[in-house]
Amino acid sequence: QHMTTAQIRQSFLDFFASNQHQVVPSSSLIPGNDATLLFTNAGMVQFKDVFLGAEKRPYTRAASSQRCVRAGGKHNDLENVGYTARHHTFFEMLGNFSFGDYFKRDAISLAWNFLTTVLQLPAEKLLVTVYHEDDEAFDIWNKEIGLPADKIIRISTSDNFWSMGDTGPCGPCSEIFFDHGDHIWGGPPGSPEEDGDRFIEIWNLVFMQFNRHADGSMEPLPKQSVDTGMGLERISAIMQGVHSNYEIDLFQGLINATAKVTNATDLEDKSLRVVADHIRSCAFLVADGVMPSNEGRGYVLRRIVRRAVRHGNKLGATEPFFYKLVAALVEQMGEAYPELVKQQAIIEKVLRIEEEQFGKTLDRGLAILEENLSSLEGSVIPGELVFKLYDTYGFPADLTADVARERFLSIDERGFQEHMEAQRRKAQQAGKFGADYNELLKSDKSTDFKGYEAEHFTGTVV
Ligand code: ATP
Ligand code: MG
Ligand code: MG
Ligand code: MG
Questions:
Q1: I need a labelling partner for 135 at 20 to 30 A (CA). Which of 235, 316, 341, 354 fits?
Q2: β-sheet bridge partners, residue 162
Q3: Of 261, 303, 276, residue with least CA distance to 394
């Protein structure tokens, strides 16, 4: 049956509440308990200490719809936006969690019941993966759920083995996929064509089974736990009978609004999807307290805003447009996220100022880029030009790479880095003649972010 995105979110939470789960509100996009993590990128983030046993809660089962951002850091889907049917920079992850309560058997049957009984998805369109050594999960799917063996794929890669870090909790995963039909290119998980969008992963069930020690040995956890995550937009697409997440109710609202404020006429234009995606991450990041800046989280936000502005410009916008989409977003998501409504005016102001600032140099920078592209030999944009666009016109390197990709070109990332490094050295030399406390503070702060590539946060325009 057809369900709206809001109805699906609610029915998920209701289902797990009726199975003795405590419904917990989404936490901020800025992880409160983990300085090594750039953004909240999964539902389990707010429960990390509970899983580790360092924090006690009055419940052992929980469910949530968690706002997530995957742009930068270990999970970076920024480059996928506009190219796949299933990735966003911002999305909502529906999750149910067991803290030493139920394990594989209940996790699998709860997920299966929700999909096939509550949502009434046809079982024959679903297939699952298990970790290749996890006979226990295989048998539950096969003998208890009754899924035929050829619908249960054993995977030996890290895709199906989760770990929190090099040491600590880890364990096998079982993922549920939906087959959107053979008119769409792609193969089942584990096949060479799995990157296509025919078989779309909808739900990841993580079984926290072991504790891994520094020497690599694994010991069963005293209290085995479950962490699951299902993309709300992906399950909405299925329920609404469409293939791409960008065709669901929520995104259609945003895409129509984007077309209106940019004067775009072709509703299929991929830039509309990019802008509609980016307004969600940018608005929610500002709502959670991130401000555009030249380093760390703020630079990720700035990069996303600038990408959106460039795509809006391509669609035909002639004046600041991005901030105008906050109203459309509030219309789509304000009910589920009252904080968005409360902060609407601030978000609009921050995004408007950021766009106005960049708007001043965008046209000039694009003109320089065009000029250089017309005489480009080969298919790689030289690092020197990428650096000049960055340094003089405020083009983050990934923005130039985004333009390049549209023309089947790439950027010389190494060359760009070399110019960045040279600039850094110059700045340091200058710094020797007087302490630059701003600079010191910056490098202190940047060490907070492990796994977040250096080029992105040291990008201070000198
Ligand atoms: P994929 O392989 O499609 O990139 P994933 O394996 O990286 O997904 P998980 O880390 O397992 O995703 O996250 C759990 C669920 O969250 C996924 O099964 C999917 O439904 C959803 N999800 C993950 N990344 C995104 C994204 N960028 N946009 C929308 N939904 C996502
Ligand atoms: Mg992924
Ligand atoms: Mg995956
Ligand atoms: Mg997964």
A1: 235
A2: 171
A3: 303
The angle formed by the CA atoms of residues 352, 354 and 357, to the nearest 5 degrees, is 105
Binding site membership of 205 for ligand 1 (Cβ less than 6 Å):
no
Using CA atoms, how far apart are residues 85 and 97, in angstroms rounded to an integer?
27
* Binding site membership of 233 for ligand 1 (Cβ less than 6 Å): yes
Is 383 close to ligand 1, i.e. is its CB under 6 Å away?
no
Task: Give the span between the Cα atoms of 277 and 140, in whole angstroms.
Answer: 38
Question: Cα–Cα distance between 145 and 164 in angstroms, integer?
Answer: 29
Whether residue 227 contacts residue 50, with contact meaning beta carbons closer than 8 Å, is answered with no
Q: 51-70 pLDDT, tens per residue?
A: 988 899 999 999 999 999 99
Mean predicted lDDT score pLDDT of the chain: 91
Average pLDDT value for residue range 333-347:
96
At 113, list the tokens. Answer: 């019941």
* pLDDT tens-digit map of 348-388: 999 999 999 999 899 999 999 999 999 999 999 999 999 99
Cα→Cα distances 393→23, 62, 315, 368, 400, Å: 47, 47, 20, 10, 11
Those residues with Cβ within 8 angstroms of residue 369's Cβ, 6 or more apart along the chain or in another chain: 385, 389, 395, 400, 403
Amino acid identity, position 317: A
Beta strand pairing call for 410-411 and 380-381: parallel
Cα(294) to centroid(ligand 1), Å? 28
How many whole angstroms from 168 Cα to the centroid of ligand 2?
22
In tens, the pLDDT along 137-190 reads 999 999 999 999 999 999 999 999 999 888 888 999 999 999 999 999 999 999
State which H helix or E strand residue 69 sits in. Answer: strand 61-69
User: Which residues, 6 or more positions from 338, have their beta carbon under 8 angstroms from its beta carbon?
Assistant: none
Sign of CA dihedral 138, 142, 147, 153: positive
Backbone CA torsion sign across 91, 94, 98, 102: negative
Question: Does residue 246's CB lie within 6 angstroms of at least one atom of ligand 1?
Answer: no
pTM: 0.91
Element (H, E) at 36: none
CA distances from 355 to 306, 358, 367 (A): 7, 5, 18
Residues sharing a CB contact under 8 Å with residue 149, sequence separation 6 or more, in sequence order: 142
